[in-house]
Amino acid sequence: MRYTSTRRTTGSPRPFSDILLEGLAPDGGLYVPGHYPRLSADDLEELRLVLDQQGYAALAARILALYIDDIPEEDIAAIASRAYSAPAFSDPAIVPVTALEGAGFDLRLAHLSLGPTAAFKDMAMRLLGELFEYELRRRGQWLTIVGATSGDTGSSAEYALRGRDGLSVVMLTPAGRMTAFQRAQMFSLLDDNIVNVAVDGVFDDCQDLVKAVNMDAAFKARWHLGAVNSINWARLLAQVVYYVATWLRATEGPGEGSPSARPGTVAPERVSVVVPTGNFGNVCAAHIARRMGVPLDALVVATNENDVLDEFFRTGVYRPR
């Protein structure tokens, strides 16, 4: 598997380990895979067995291996096992799916907020931390993560990367525009490799600074800068895994509902998902899972007053706040 920029002006396709550390492509585009591996009905049932018998980390390793061919599969399995361990998550299922009663129809809840900071972003950040540390150790290099956040990205990233060898974090936040809880989570960390910077402006000002740094190829290379925002493909890939797990746990395999059914003889059950989203990175992972063949039906975007992108799609006007 090789990765190219969405702007397609960057040179030859890159392996996963390179784009993991780079984050944003030199031309300002996002790295995306050359193709999306397809999962057949039989593949999905095999993954169901993996999830049921070996757990979430084993499922993650199987999905990751479809996109990563420059890290040995046994190392991918070890990375996933460390990222998705019971001590870090309050439920050994990592992403349990439970029924919600009283809706009048089959409604389930995928619990994505059982990690260290009670944010769904722990699901991706935990894996990113393990991947970064593994690859930097393998290369004998160091990396400084420069990120922007107005909410839970910062605390999730910092908790996942704190104290790791070869890693430092500089996180930009808009001054006075975060909840007291999120600000306390971040600014109470005293680890030597964590630096928090409050910027006089809005989130887009912080993000513009991060993008400007990433666009300066010489500066970025000199200071070994990387990213953990949704511009990093590895973060989206980690999110794809929990959509696969959610579909598997919300459905029954062939034979579970009908003793005579055999794998491949029954059309997989389709599931619609409703995703609370701000910048659409989370629901983008659901879209990728669907492109891979996971039988997701409607992808419903739920938004609140943080509706910058929703407003843009409805009106054609982009209004930073």
UniProtKB/TrEMBL annotation:
What are its cofactors?
A: pyridoxal 5'-phosphate
Query: Positions modified as N6-(pyridoxal phosphate)lysine?
Result: K121
As for family, the record states:
Belongs to the threonine synthase family.
> Which key words are in the record?
Amino-acid biosynthesis, Lyase, Pyridoxal phosphate, Threonine biosynthesis
What gene does this protein come from?
Answer: thrC
What GO terms in the biological process aspect are recorded for it? threonine biosynthetic process
Q: What is its EC number?
A: 4.2.3.1
UniProt enzyme class: lyase
Q: Which reaction does it catalyse?
A: O-phospho-L-homoserine + H2O = L-threonine + phosphate
Pathway(s) served: Amino-acid biosynthesis; L-threonine biosynthesis; L-threonine from L-aspartate: step 5/5
Residue ranges of domain Tryptophan synthase beta chain-like PALP in the record: 107-318
Q: Which Pfam families match?
A: PALP, Thr_synth_N
Q: GO molecular function of the protein, one example?
A: pyridoxal phosphate binding
Role this protein plays: Catalyzes the gamma-elimination of phosphate from L-phosphohomoserine and the beta-addition of water to produce L-threonine.
Q: Where is the Threonine synthase N-terminal domain?
A: 2-84
Any idea what this protein is called?
Threonine synthase
